[in-house]
Structures are given as C-alpha cells and as structure tokens.
Amino acid sequence: MEPNYTMIDIKKWSRGKLFKSYIDNLRIVMSLTVDIDVTKLIEFSKSNNFKFYPSMIWIVSKIVNAHDEFKYSWDSNGNQIKWEYVFPSYTLWNNVSCSPPRQGHALRCALWVYIVKQRYLRILAILHQSQLNKGRPV
C-alpha cells in the first residue's frame, strides 16, 4: 500500500506561523496520556471472543484518525505533510516476524495482518449494529 499524504504549504497553512515559531524557537516534545475506564471494552472483547489489545488499538486508531491534528508529520525530505490515514504499529509477542529472516514468516505475517483486519471489521459491524439497535445515528 502506497503511503498517502498531502504536502503542507507552511506559508498558506492557517497554523503555519504558529507552527514555524514553535519549530524555530522551542524544543517541542509531545506526550499525550489519559486515564480511561476500559471495563466495557474488556467485557465487549470477552463476549465477542476478541483479544483486548487489538480491540484497544483499533479504537485508539479510529479516534486518532478522526482528528487531523494527530496526522501531521514530515516526509523523508523534511517537508511538512498530513497523512490521509495513520496506521498503528503492533507489538507481536510471538516468533512471527514481519521482516522474514527465513521462508514462511512473510506469509504468516501477512496472514496475521489479514486476521487482525477481519477482526476489526467484525468489531465495527457489531458496534454499528448495536448503535442501530439503540436508535443512535452512526
């Protein structure tokens, strides 16, 4: 999959002057943390036979991708960009590696990614259906 992003013209960007001021004059480090109650997500994951970690990553990814502010970055040439979609990184706690040191690992990694995507689609369908059943707009 090709990475899709938009180049940002700092001079035309509404936040360009502020951004330039911070980049040129301050050392910026950002860390974003928040305490959240995941009890319902744990219950939902268990009742639908999902693992908690991929479910949590999926929800966080949906939230991150709903806000442009989380999708700004730099390309390999140092140009300001905004990603169309930010993909999560996963920690694999087993011997399957996405960089195949020997035959078969790439296939297992591709299969794992496919399985995760299918589970996400299943979670989305279940959440969508539960919202429809409660009469809430999606």
TrEMBL record:
SUPFAM superfamilies: CoA-dependent acyltransferases (SSF52777). SMART domains: CAT (SM01059). One of its GO terms (molecular function) is chloramphenicol O-acetyltransferase activity. Transmembrane segments: none annotated. This is Uncharacterized protein. It comes from Wansuia hejianensis. The lineage of its organism: Bacteria, Bacillati, Bacillota, Clostridia, Lachnospirales.
